[in-house]
Every structure is written in C-alpha cells, then in structure tokens.
Design brief:
The chain is an alpha/beta fold. It has two domains: 122 residues, Aspartate Aminotransferase, domain 1 (Alpha-Beta Complex), CATH 3.90.1150; 261 residues, 3-Layer(aba) Sandwich (Aspartate Aminotransferase, domain 2). Helix content is 36%, strand content 18%. The strands form four sheets. Strands 4-12-11-10-7-5-6 form a seven-stranded mixed sheet, sandwiched between helices. It binds pyridoxal-5'-phosphate.
Length: 405
C-alpha cells in the first residue's frame, strides 16, 4: 500500500500537495468535478447561501434553491419528468429509484381487490453494473469482491448482458422469462463506469429499452456518472429515443463540490403515490434532504453550463479523444481503445482484469511522478478530465499516457 498524498489545495484541473507538487486531475476526482476545482463562481454562491440559509428540515418547509434547481432540472433532463426527489449521493439516488419502482407496483396491487395482480418485486440489471454501495444499489450491481459478504442478503435480480448487434433476440427471450415479476430495469446508459468503462452502442440500447418498456417494466437510467456532459451530450439518455421513467443524478450535479443526489420521475409514477391511503406514501427522507447549500452549488453549476463554455469544451475534448485514440491503437500492449465523449479508455493486455489487480497502482505511481493523476480500474486505464482543462493540459495528459505505455 502506498501512503495517501496530502492535498492542501486544488485549483482548476490541478491538485496541489503539501510540498507544492502539482498533479493534473485527469479523472475529475472520481468523476465528480466538472468545471474544475475550487471554481470561484460556485464558491461564491456557496458562501452566499451559507450566510442566508444553510440548512432546514425539508418536510413541511421548502426553500428557493431546491425549488429553482428542481424546475431547472425538469427542463433539461432527458424525458418526460415531472417531479424531483432529493437525496444525498449517487447510491441513495439509486436506492430511492429502486424503492420508488418497487412501491409503485405494491401500491397498484394494494388498490386492486379483484384481479390479483402478480407481485413485481424482482429487478433487472446489466452484468458488470455498478450502482452504488447501499443495499438496493449493491443488489443491482455486479456480484464482486465489493458485495461478497452480503450475497445472501441482496434483493432478487436478473442480470443480462449489455446489448450488441448479435444478442438482442437472446436478451428478449431472457427478459420474457421474468417480465411479469420484474418491477424495474436499471442501467448505466452507454458507459458502465466502475465496471471498467465498458461502452455500448445507442442503437442497440434503444431497441432494448423499447422492448423493456413494452413489458411495462419501469426503466431507471443511472446517470450518476454519465450526467452533465460526460458522454458528449448533457445526458447519455439523449442518445436514445426511448427515454427512462426515472433518472438518477449525482456526481457532477453540484459541479462536484459537495454531495447531493436527485431522482426524477414521470407523472405516472408520482400519481401512484397520490392517495388518501397513508400506506401508499413514499416514506423516504434524509436529514440533509435538499440541503440549500448543495442546491445553490448545483444551481451555480447549471449557470456555468448555460454560458456554453463548458459545452464547447466538452465537444473539444471529445474530438481530441477520438484523434488520440487512433494514436493509442498503435501502441503495443494495449487494446480495446474506446471513446464516448470526454471519456477515453483502454485495456492493458497484461494480467487479469479485476479490481484487485495491482497493475493499476504501478501505473498510478508512474503517472503521478510525471504530474498526472489517473487511477485505473483493474486493467482498464481511462481519463475523464474536468471541462475547464486547457488544450495544453489535455495534451500533457496524452503525452504522459504515451510515455507511461
Ligand atoms: C459513482 C456511481 C454511483 C454511486 O455514487 P456515490 O455518490 O458514490 O454513492 C452510482 N452509479 C454510478 C453509475 C456511479 O458511477
């Protein structure tokens, strides 16, 4: 184990340690940072909000930053969403979505006295998925060393492959076997993050989503990582025509400055909870639900997106990634070079591809010594820079990747 490096300051694309050494943050500090570190505009809005209203109970009370953020998100989220539910982070945003979907069916069943609707309590998810570390989110994630101690305690989940041009028919057959008992399908649109930056095509996903929606299964897009520009569009779900019923965001939501999660749902889901029967209430809330400072940070981040500079940079990073990928493909010992927007990833041929593989540490140490911070996932090396990155800084990351390999 290497000792952690004490970072005392961060600015733009750089992390600065206690000795003054600078590191280019090529992975946006685990994918959260979008506009750069310690962004002065977001910092100012956080400061203003902290002086005005730092936190209140979000039951029986409401506040402007939460209302404004919800209204702005409803406008830009890809789908026909009508309500926003606040929670604390990516895991809880998914946990909320899973509970919301399961109770949606429970509420239908409990109003139905005659027809005896079947119970829909299974979930459908992709193999190799990662949706978080709370119990519901862990259940729909790939069974791995992360979840090993809890396998007997997790929810019932049917795992299918991500779609490609050849397996759609087979996937449909697998879904058919369980369709009537599945409450919801949860997916990371187009890029499976923690599972190793695995990418799949929008057209295949569209066909699969269409089929799953036909089966009345609630579709939950986990855009915790892909949201806010990562895949080249503001949200990865924009690449597909078929939109989700529920969408979850976190990571880049506050610009990556602090923790906040949102789960948005359609009017149809919301309506299933509108009832005089108190048992049909969605009983879920956290102490820090809709924290005003986190909402203010998110509103500030959206202000920055509206200025279009970030979107132009996303386009630039995406184009440069494509060009650099062609160069990378010529390097011996690496394979599966792939790009989706600002995310570029490839595999090292040596060693087993698993999270506990130590090759990542070696690469991290090497790149750090040259002033770039990357953190491979098993055999997968990737970059996902903040959008404030300059053309020069991006070239430095590429150059050092080439040097290391
Ligand atoms: C990071 C991540 C999560 C978990 O978010 P946390 O904020 O770490 O709880 C869930 N889903 C995806 C796709 C993620 O990348």
């Amino acid at each position: 184990m290497v000792d952690p490096i004490a970072i005392t300051k961060a600015k733009g694309s750089y992390l600065i340690d206690e000795n003054g050494k600078q590191y280019l943050d090529a992975i946006s500090s685990w994918w959260v940072n979008v506009h750069g570190h310690a962004h002065p505009y977001i910092a100012e809005k956080i400061y203003e909000q902290a002086q005005q209203l730092e936190h209140i109970i979000f039951a029986g009370f409401t506040h402007e930053p939460a209302v404004t953020l919800a209204e702005r998100l409803i406008k830009i989220l890809p789908g026909n969403f009508s309500k926003i539910f606040y929670s604390d982070d990516g895991s809880t945003s998914n946990e909320v979505a899973i509970k919301m979907a399961i109770q949606y069916w429970w509420n239908q069943k409990s109003s139905d006295t005659k027809t005896n609707l079947p119970s829909r309590d299974k979930l459908l998810a992709f193999k190799n998925a990662y949706h978080g570390d709370t119990f519901g989110a862990m259940s729909v994630s790939e069974r791995s060393v992360f979840t090993l101690a809890f396998h007997d305690l997790l929810l019932e989940v049917v795992f299918i492959d991500v779609p490609d041009e050849n397996n759609l028919h087979q996937l449909k057959q697998e879904i058919d076997k369980h369709a009537d008992s599945v409450a919801a399908f949860i997916y990371e649109p187009l890029v499976q993050g923690a599972g190793g930056m695995k990418m799949y095509a929008p057209a295949c996903m569209d066909a699969l989503l269409q089929y799953i929606r036909q089966k009345n299964i609630i579709c939950i897009a986990d855009e915790v990582m892909t949201g806010f520009g990562r895949t080249g569009k503001m949200f990865a779900s924009e690449y597909m025509e078929t939109k989700p019923d529920i969408i979850c965001c976190s990571k880049g939501l506050t610009g990556g400055t602090m923790a906040l999660g949102v789960t948005a749902c359609t009017e149809k889901i919301y309506n299933a909870y509108l009832d005089d029967d108190g048992r049909k209430t969605f009983f879920h809330g956290h102490s820090f639900t809709a924290n005003p400072i986190a909402c203010a940070a998110s509103n500030a981040s959206l202000d920055l997106f509206e200025q279009n500079i970030a979107l132009k940079k996303i386009e630039y990073i995406s184009e440069r990634n494509e060009a650099f990928a062609i160069q990378l493909k010529q390097i011996k010992g690496i394979k599966d070079v792939r790009v989706r927007g600002t995310i570029l990833a490839f595999e090292i041929e040596k060693g087993k591809d698993e999270y506990l593989n130590t090759i990542g540490n070696t690469i991290t140490t090497k790149a750090l010594s040259k002033g770039v911070y990357i953190r491979p996932l098993g055999n997968t090396v990737y970059i996902m820079p903040p959008y404030c990155i300059t053309e020069e800084e991006l070239e430095t990351i590429y150059a050092i990747l080439q040097e290391v390999f």
